[in-house]
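Q: Hi! First time asking for a complex rather than a single chain. Here are the components, and I think there are two in total. Is that enough to go on?
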Amino acid sequence: MKIARALQLVWTALAYLLLLAPILVLILASFDEAKFFRFPPQTLSLHWYEAAAASGEYRSALSASAIIALCAGTISILVGSLAAYALARFTFPGKRLVEAVLLAPLVLPLIVWAIALLQIYAALGMSGTLAGLVLAHAVITVPYTVRIMVSTFERIDPNLEAAAASLGAPPLAVARRITIPLAMPGLATSAAFSLLISFNDVIVSSLIAGARWITFPVRLFAQLRSEGVDPITLAIGATIIAVILLAAIVGEYALKWSRHL
Amino acid sequence: MNGPSSKAVLFLLPAVALSTVVFLLPFGWLVYASFKVQGQGSLLMADGLSVANYMRLVTDSYFAAALWRTVWLSAVSTLLCLVIGLPVARLIATGSGRAKGLLLALMLVPLVCGALLPSLGMIHLLGSLGVVNGTLKMLGLIGGSIKLLGTTGGVILGMVQAFLPLMVLPLVNTLSRLPRDVEAAAASLGASPIRVWRRVILPLAMPGIVAGAVLVFCAGFTAFVTPQVLGQGKIATFGTVAYQQAALVLDWPFASTLAVVVLVAIGLTLILSAQFDRLTKRRRALA
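A: Yes, that's all I need. Here is the structure of the assembled complex.
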């Protein structure tokens, strides 16, 4: 039994090594001063981080990513929470179908959809436009918001809303003073997921991107397909991962803290 | 008009409209476009419907080979994820407190990093001057470098790394619902650890195994970032071929045909797995 347990521990450690190795290597390589990473690295420095901060080309790619993610995230939160509220509070015929339609982007392969969208956008003259990219990103982030917000609203007691309304609060005031504050943790989680999904997307963006709105993942993918690795992207990639993990940790603590209120 | 119902319609309308128009309708277009052919020397489609694209898929050995390669690459990745993931999932499921939370959180890391950044790391892990080759050289195990990038092995490694969480998370979910002492109970009755796994844990974990296998297989079948980047363009899978046809060759009707085939393959996988699930449930009900 002891040997079996030890084997299981070693196996798990190796599995996690495989799982996390690429990310650890990415971080290590970003500190290598050489133009071509070689293991073991000769000198470690922040050279590529400085170069990344100075590069206008990557700054524009990152700001394109950020603008698209913010717009898509906003749409996703507005549209998705409204729908989630209806799904959580009302019963109506065809509810299951509506749910399936809203969650479809989680199930159906995005590359298939992107090949279709590319053609439709081309026909409508929308390929490579900000609106086209934002709409596409909003669609793939909506299911995350719907899922998170349905369970958030289900945990909010409808009697609180009813009580406020019976005391004469108009519907908008009920939403503003009762529902939205209580739903804040869910809204924050949905926003984080929407931004993440949009910011990470390569599949859809690289098929419908034009020349003007090139996001960071699209730029990186194009580079990996043709020229090889520019070390600046390692520094940016490592920074992105650090930001994502930091946001996850902060979010986790904020959520715990909010439950103690 | 009654109150709640009209309110529900109003609330649902924007999201449903967005999902239907921007997401679902394009799938219909795809089926239509897959039966068209591109006009000579233009991006426009020629008149009339034909099955030429489907014939091309069957007769052109490049695409048939890519399809076959994708099926077995996905199958091998699924199997490896299962073999690697089962003991890990069991450890997480039987664990408790902080260690369990930490292991689960670390399992999510590749999922939140997207497809591209781990691939970027993989290049530096597997490259001829990368960490694996560098370590082996330092240990004096190899003289030259082993070629890992641009090989099938490299692509499989990348897919296993990227999709392992898709296997482990459903497994943890199923295994967590097993009573914690089944192992001890079976062992106390004289069963060897292997026998406990084969007769007790595996059958009870079957729903999780099927769910994880479907997720990994479908992810592998539609993957294109990982095979493209780690295969260095030398390992043609269905995802990379479809992407090339759509984004580089600009033969959209043919890309649509490839996309339809991906949809059909995934539909078949889901139907087969549902059948399998029903079969195992019936067998367990009989036993």
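A: Chain A touches chain B through 84 residues (CB under 8 Å). Let me know if you'd like any chain examined more closely.
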